[in-house]
Amino acid sequence: MAELSYRDAVIRAISQEMERDNNVVFLGEDVAKAGGVFKATVGLYEKFGPHRVRDTPISEQAILGAAMGAAMTGLRPIAEIMFSDFAAVCFDFIANEMPKLSYMTNGQLTCPLVIRTGNGAGVRFGAQHSQSIENWTMMIPGLKVVAPSSPVDVIGLMAAAVRDNNPVIFHEHKALYSTKGEVPDGEIVDTLGTAKILRAGTDCTIVALAMMVSRALEAAEILARDHGINAEVIDVRSLVPLDTRTILGSVAKTGRLFTVEENPRLLGWGAEIASIVADEAFWDLDGPIVRITTPHIPLPAADHLEDLALPNASRIVEKIARVMNG
Amino acid sequence: MAELSYRDAVIRAISQEMERDNNVVFLGEDVAKAGGVFKATVGLYEKFGPHRVRDTPISEQAILGAAMGAAMTGLRPIAEIMFSDFAAVCFDFIANEMPKLSYMTNGQLTCPLVIRTGNGAGVRFGAQHSQSIENWTMMIPGLKVVAPSSPVDVIGLMAAAVRDNNPVIFHEHKALYSTKGEVPDGEIVDTLGTAKILRAGTDCTIVALAMMVSRALEAAEILARDHGINAEVIDVRSLVPLDTRTILGSVAKTGRLFTVEENPRLLGWGAEIASIVADEAFWDLDGPIVRITTPHIPLPAADHLEDLALPNASRIVEKIARVMNG
Amino acid sequence: MAKEKLATNDDIGLEKRLELYRLQIEIRDAEKRAHDLFLQNLIKGTSHLSLGQEAIAAGFGVALKKGDKSFCTYRGHAHTLARGTPVEGVLGELMLRDNGLMRGKGGSMHLTSVEHGVMGSYAIIGAHLCIACGSAWRAQYLGEKDVTACFFGDGTTNIGAFHEALNFAVVWRLPVIFVCENNLYMEYTPISEVTAVPHPAADRAAAYGLPRILIDGNDADVVYRTASEAIAKAREGGGPSLIECLTYRHSGHSRADPAKYRPPGELEKWLERDPIKIYRQRLKDFGIGQDQIDAIEKESMRKVDEATAACKAAPPAPVDLLTADVYADGGWAWRN
Amino acid sequence: MAKEKLATNDDIGLEKRLELYRLQIEIRDAEKRAHDLFLQNLIKGTSHLSLGQEAIAAGFGVALKKGDKSFCTYRGHAHTLARGTPVEGVLGELMLRDNGLMRGKGGSMHLTSVEHGVMGSYAIIGAHLCIACGSAWRAQYLGEKDVTACFFGDGTTNIGAFHEALNFAVVWRLPVIFVCENNLYMEYTPISEVTAVPHPAADRAAAYGLPRILIDGNDADVVYRTASEAIAKAREGGGPSLIECLTYRHSGHSRADPAKYRPPGELEKWLERDPIKIYRQRLKDFGIGQDQIDAIEKESMRKVDEATAACKAAPPAPVDLLTADVYADGGWAWRN
Ligand SMILES: Cc1ncc(C[n+]2csc(CCOP(=O)(O)OP(=O)(O)O)c2C)c(N)n1
Ligand SMILES: Cc1ncc(C[n+]2csc(CCOP(=O)(O)OP(=O)(O)O)c2C)c(N)n1
Ligand SMILES: [Mg+2]
Ligand SMILES: [Mg+2]
């Protein structure tokens, strides 16, 4: 057991998998010699050498194309897209090429690779470097989508992603890189498609992801203390596959669902969960399903405005308390 | 009044706006001399000449970039992205550049343009030329998103889109190009953000878009005839802005909501509507909200498989009848 | 006498010459058959023929070795057949039947036959140039000796992915050969009207530090020789090549296209340079008898007839295929 | 004597020379101030300085006319100031205050001042080259005589949008000037390690039928002359230009970067070629007195101090700006 930062967890996770499997290779911009702009790949180049850890030109399409071509012919690449916003410059590979390969070829080819990317806000980088794009990726058939909230999940889910035989988008939250958590020693391998109940509760279910998880937990404590509301908090962790069983099970118990989403409102990931619950758990519901999201706006750079845009504990508390108590 | 095809409606709509405003220009691949691969721009080149109707290289990023740069400096371009699937090769402009321009510049600049694109399935083109990507565009703050289901709506909504001062994505459905409808003579201008109740009903609300509208209407007739269910059918027409008033009003009356979506399941446009209704109209609901969508898969090329994938009248009837009658 | 002379300094050799002809004929026959099948309304969806461009696929088909990988486009029937893929699998896929290469799930624009090194046909312009880089990178990384060939058209040189792939392949010195089939048109627009240089690929090679290679794409011998050199260079670790092959498609862009945009006489001029016509004469110049030529043509037609019959008899795929192979486990489950 | 001689065949002239110096000094002072403000933790978020690259922005700033448009990147403080944008607006935006150019909503990577022709700073590599084409197309279409200048870095030449924009601009003969500031590095990676040619822009000009233009980006006179020619060509309908300016950034890529990756001595070598140092000497060669030089420097520092004071006093933007201007109507309503 040791305390590790989310950033160092990324390094440990990639190391663990590269040590295990020589077919795991890693490429991206400024990731090798420089160790990455978020310093989340420091030491990999020194450890695994220039053939396995490679710097690329500013060519996101070539990066993902190369990863895909290598994956379909035998390697298991990990490709970095520095900021998740840049998924838009290579979206053809994410939406049209990788996820459709197995289907279009009737299973002749598969695409076992991981795209890891710096997602999310909180660092005052403005509208083009702060987006939460988990919903861009959740909507594409054939992809798997992961977004860990803690160092231990970073390692376990990265390992699971690298070992998975499908294209997996791995959303690392930029604002979490410096956060720390306890991590057991030795190999860590988790399971995709499993949500985690981080706080058991009886009155309502709060589903959160990535940076929103700690805020949901904080809100739950305040709700219990100040409002007598005992909330169950679920970290979704994996949007695809989606652990609907855990979510539906919780709602069956609490009768109320709230989502806390960093992505902007329209078709944020919570919309899908809300629609599943409104269908399959309708008779369990004791009241409206409420989504707490970033408003449907681009993100401002100014710190006070950015803080205002993202859901935080007080907004979560205020909203849930109002909905539940009146 | 004259009968016009959806295809010819596109031509008439663009003509109407180009005649009205000299700042309206049109560009795309094979759109000018050849009249477009869907023949939906035939005659525009001859009518408005080589300066206003321009063929481009296969450079979607340059097409949208040029449209954006022209829009922010005074023109009102219409840009064609031939198949909506290709939005993925220029998604940076759709997701990161155009929709954030006004916000990032604190209103110093606006981006009045229309991206028209051939969306949807039914033509046996396979996984990379048949997608319904209305949900890709609905989730982006700052965009407006339109998808007409009839020739008259094509004209009215295209006119509204061209006159709007924001970037508007105009989804034309490939499988509807050859369908016909009555169109009044003279100028036609509609309003974005307005849904249409195409069939009044009392028992449930069916919300549909584009090619799914006629199938929903067909289903409603069968439901009335064979199952004694009187469904209200709403053509959303515009996903952003979204006419929530009409939808909520209908649900308040019927107490039941069904969506019929051509896009694949996860984060299809209906998920947002379902989540809004499950929040704001929860107490109006008499039963589960059910989404009828294409399964969450890439699209097959084979005709019998493609037909099986898309929601059709019988699937809609079967589903709604089962849900409503026990 | 002339014949002998030619025959003696024949660098290609009888066997390969016959194979080059056989492939061109088989591609031509199969695609003409595909065209007939449209007319009988037995082919749904779209389809893009390479009539007139067969020499390129054939030249590379003979130059590439088993285990080499190829990537092509929606206009990929020729390249798929050129690697040895059975005609039935190709026509079956065009007809969207259960005997198609992908059992009708992919369709004519996505022909794939991994066992023949055909690593897919890609229908969104540009992407597969980048993907081909990855295949070549894998060979380089694992020390495998196969090379990757990537076929695309003139219009594709104007999209961003072309630029990224070419620079990337050179910087990483990848064993990949980029083959631009310049048939003078994108869909309906002449490439000359939308391109800053006369030769969309050759005139850009220098931008990637590559030699300028511009060849007659209608002469299978020229293609075979150029392909062989580029393949050898790639195999020996010499890095990528970019080859522009001048050619012409006899038919429209796709089944939907009557190709009215072509100036009068252009097609006729190119028909005189029909690669099959050229190569039939070539065989004769090398002293190959009419009987051998007839035998090749007869055998090709027999295969295509046989394949056609099998396709007409083939059922559509079972409906459970609809949700198969979305994920690598064979299923489509996105939830528990 | 020498002075006179120089002075007499001075093609640029005293007035413009002083302006070239004034702009370089103002940019240098403003960016050094920005750096001090980080250290005082008064600048949140990121920031990318052009220290050492000022001659390029200044050379174009003087060559461009009122009404001309410019597009730049996250490394755009210099290009924004060079068009006459007040220092306060720039520093205010870096400090994310209400007096910033976009009142803190855009941040340092998106500086925009439409009234000065600064049509935005773009932070996702490549896009703005395509967008600049559109601005130039508008001018061409409406018969307006303004030209569009587009600034970007060496690393940007390897992304697809660069290729699409260059080809498009040439085919449409657009009045746009593409200015590549080759400072030898992308973020932390030397451009030479990821590019197929030695000169990422100049060595690719021919791929778009353009002349090869490679200049000393640290000499404001050279930049001014080259800019003036390209601008004149564009204004007269002669179409686009691609100019590669050799330069070097004295600081790291961004505030986060200590630039450890630079080989020893490299920075020192370039500091000797500091554009400000070069130009101060240039002025002296042309007989401009120390007093005049001092006056310019004093005035610049005064402006920057004034701006700093104003910024420190400025409040943050009112919170209702959060949802303002999402749409052109000033609001953010996505529903009724
Ligand atoms: C990104 C993208 N843009 C546009 C298209 C539509 N399209 C299909 S084929 C084609 C022309 C391609 O021309 P070329 O590269 O010369 O190949 P050819 O068809 O001549 O073999 C176009 C524009 C596409 N498939 N993908
Ligand atoms: C599409 C995209 N990929 C990567 C980045 C991250 N990034 C920001 S600046 C930069 C380096 C750009 O280098 P260059 O073009 O030489 O400009 P410079 O910073 O040297 O002025 C990179 C890779 C980005 N902003 N956009
Ligand atoms: Mg072509
Ligand atoms: Mg640089």
Overall description:
- The complex is a heterotetramer, with 2 copies of chain A (326 residues) and 2 copies of chain C (336 residues).
- In chain A, 37% of the residues lie in helices and 22% in strands.
- With 326 residues, chain A is α/β, with parallel strands linked by helices.
- In chain A, the strands form 3 sheets. A 7-stranded mixed sheet of chain A has the order 3-2-4-5-7-6-12, sandwiched between helices. In chain A, strands 9-11-10-13-14 form a 5-stranded mixed sheet, sandwiched between helices. Chain A has a two-stranded antiparallel ribbon with strand order 1-8.
- In chain A, helix 1 packs parallel to helix 7 (151-163).
- The radius of gyration of chain A is 19 Å and the shape is globular.
- In chain A, 72% of the residues are buried.
- By secondary structure, chain C is of the alpha/beta class.
- Chain C is built from 11 helices and 6 strands.
- In chain C, helix 2 crosses helix 3 (54-63), helix 2 (14-39) runs parallel beside helix 11 and helix 6 runs parallel beside helix 7.
- The radius of gyration of chain C is 20 Å and the shape is globular.
- Residues 1-5 of chain C have low confidence and may be disordered.
- Chains in contact: A-B, A-C, A-D, B-C, B-D, C-D.
- At the A-B interface, helix 4, helix 6 and helix 10 of A face helix 4, helix 6 and helix 10 of B.
- The complex binds thiamine diphosphate (2 copies) and magnesium ion (2 copies).
- One thiamine diphosphate sits between chains D (75, 123-125, 152-156, 183, 185-187, 253) and A (29, 58, 60, 82, 86, 89).
